[in-house]
Amino acid sequence: MNTSGVQFIPVTTEKAVMLVEKDNVVTFTVNMKYQKAEIKKQFEEIFNVKVAKIRTLIKENKKYVFLKLKKEFPAIDLATKIGII
Q1: Distance in angstroms (rounded) separating the CA atoms of residues 16 and 48
Q2: Residue 2 banded pLDDT, cuts 50, 70, 90
Q3: Assigned domain for 46 exists
Q4: Which residues, 6+ apart, have CB-to-CB distance to 52 below 8 Å?
Q5: Which domain range does residue 71 map to?
Q6: Strand 9-10 relative to strand 25-30: parallel, antiparallel, unpaired?
Q7: What is the mean pLDDT of residues 16-37?
Q8: Which end of the chain is more exposed for a tag (fewer CB within 10 A), N or C?
Q9: What's the total number of domains in the chain?
């Protein structure tokens, strides 16, 4: 595992914002070399939240991660804090 950790770049498209509001999901792009378990662990440590489910999508040589947060951690609060909304 890389000692510098996963770099999370927020996705701010209209669809990503809709997922925050509707499904409690935040969307980021990450380096292709990281696996779901590493991404989840790093995300929970950095943002101090708990992830219920993680999905990934590789499109146009980018890896998108969709992190569904547990109910007690509203995605809208996180999105506001990091500037997505």
Answers
A1: 21
A2: very low
A3: yes
A4: 68, 69, 70, 71
A5: 9-82
A6: antiparallel
A7: 97
A8: N
A9: 1
Name the pTM for this structure: 0.92
- Rounded to whole angstroms, the Cα distance separating 7 from 80 reads 19
pLDDT band at 1 (very low <50, low <70, confident <90, very high): very low
DSSP secondary structure string, 26-63?
A: EEEEE-TT--HHHHHHHHHHHHT--EEEEEEEEETTEE
Residue for token digits 């980021």? 28
Q: Within a domain: residue 25?
A: yes
pLDDT digit string, tens, across residues 52-63: 999 999 999 999
**Amino acid, single-letter form, for residue 58:** I
Residue 18 lies in a domain: yes
Q: Does a structural domain hold residue 4?
A: no
